[in-house]
Amino acid sequence: MNPDDASSGYPASSDPQSVVGDLAPARLTVGIVSAGRVGSALGVALERAGHVVFGVAAISEASVRRAQNRLPDSQILPVEDVAARSELLLLAVPDTELAGLARGLASAKVVRPGTIVAHTSGANGVGVLAPLADIGAMPLAIHPAMTFTGHDEDIIRLGNACFGITAADEIGYAIAQALVIEMGGEPVRVQEHNRALYHAALAHGSNHLVTVIVDALAALRISLEGPGLLGQQIVDDQPNGLAERLLAPLASAALDNALRRGQSALTGPVARGDADAVAAHLTALESVDPRLAEGYRAMSLRTAERAGTNPAVIELLKGR
Known about the structure:
- By secondary structure, the protein is an alpha/beta fold.
- Helices cover 52% and strands 12% of the residues.
- The chain contains 14 helices and 8 strands.
- It has an 8-stranded mixed sheet, with helices on both faces.
- Helix 5 links the parallel strand 4 (88-91) and strand 5.
- The longest helix has 29 residues, at 195-223.
- The radius of gyration is 24 Å and the shape is elongated.
């Protein structure tokens, strides 16, 4: 595809605002490597926007099945064939594989000059695509700030997701912005040198949230052992049980309050400076699992520092 060819799907305008408008009606021939949870979900979103996902590289049985279910009109092809025929090449591979894939595609010379090459890695900007940029491709980083499960809700959630985008120039930013808007997301510019910090913040706020919740549920289940009330559900280790119902409203309200009100949402014994209650918590958790107690101690210390709470609590949590 020639970027100077007005008939192609790639806009030649040098005005970024014009590019956003020009790209929206243009239909791109899209290839995806690979058909994982992210790549297949974005493929569906791009198809719904009117682009044509002609081919998908899928190796594992799960990826092949996912491609067949989500993108039934797309061919399952070798990576080189997908790359050679794409106007928009979407690299949705794990972070650890991205640099090697970019080098391999560049060495094979299968990506045509003018091809838009976008990856979905949160940790990387466009620098990782330098080998492809050197042969004339347009590099983009388009990262959906969303967790993916491989189920139908992935595609629904894309409509409420922000995408961290990074490009080499304003034309690239405009194209990435247009693609994200077409997929129903909200584009957010992330500078190249801030990608690691951006990714760390998202990982801290989402991955560690899962760990905190799962740890809390484990302790809560043990606290509910023994005879229950008449008609009360038996407490077991299966998801969506009594422990989850107990914690869900509290955790949901805490998250909502934090997002709406910031640090003022902090409550509980650590924020209040109740050293006796915190000490009792540590003792109880230690009796169940020392690792739970250490996780509580670490998060409580950070909470105490944020809240500027009773120095005795901080000393307790530091083990002094």
